[in-house]
Amino acid sequence: MPDQIITPDDPHGFLQGVAGWSSYLPLLLKALQFTRPGPILELGMGDDSTRRLNAYVKETDRRLVSYDSKSEWVARFADLACSAHGMMQARNWDDVPIVPSFPTIGNRNQFRWSVILIDHAPGERRWFDLLRFCAAADVVIVHDTEKPGGGDYQYEKAWPSYRYRINDNRFFPGACATAVSNFIDVSKWTDALAWEINRGQAAPAV
User: Using one digit for the tens of pLDDT, what is the confidence trace for 81-100?
Assistant: First the structure.
């Protein structure tokens, strides 16, 4: 890990109010900065991710699609829906398309998502989708990767399918986060582990 603490440009507050339930935010910010331009897929909506991602794509001309299996979470963020941000209920997670279903001009590869965030329910489904998308995203960010975790995530079934991996364990024994890829050497993203974060405060309005 680098000795020098570097705070990156963060106009959308990805490094503000970070706690165990949002420990993926630093790696998510790094992935967004490294992979732009290109589409983003959010599996599992949340107060800490969905609003930040919405503000981010509106200002960066990227596309975001957010899925959740619970209608109440889709309704919670319905006011954010726009041409840059699609909201969908996943009645069956198998129905989520592996590749983007819209033009991805400027993306590294039009048949891949740039970034996928995996933080959905039920928790035991996550390892399967991590495996399912292993060739369909430049970078996948995964939440709750501490071992032993609080849920039956079974991530160890999917890790061997990825070539590169980096863990952010700053909140251990609380929830931790991991970035994986088969296309980008995320193991070199040690600078993101040294970013100064504002822990545990309320997320800014975005």
Answer: 999 999 999 999 999 999 88
* C-alpha to C-alpha distance for 174 and 87, rounded to whole angstroms: 29
Question: Which of 65, 48, 176, 68 is CA-nearest to residue 121?
Answer: 68
Residues 6+ away with beta carbon under 8 Å from 167: 145, 176, 177, 178
Nearest Cα neighbor of 139 from 29, 9, 20, 12 is 29
Q: How far is CA 206 from the centre of its chain?
A: 17
Contacts of 172 (CB under 8 A, 6+ apart): 146
Token reading at 9:
């440009």
What DSSP letter does each residue of 165-186 carry, written as one string? EEEE-TTTTS--EEEEESSS-G
Percentages helix, strand, coil for the chain (3-state, rounded to 5) are 30, 20, 50
pLDDT of residue 184 exceeding 60, the answer is yes
In eight-state DSSP terms, residue 147 is: S
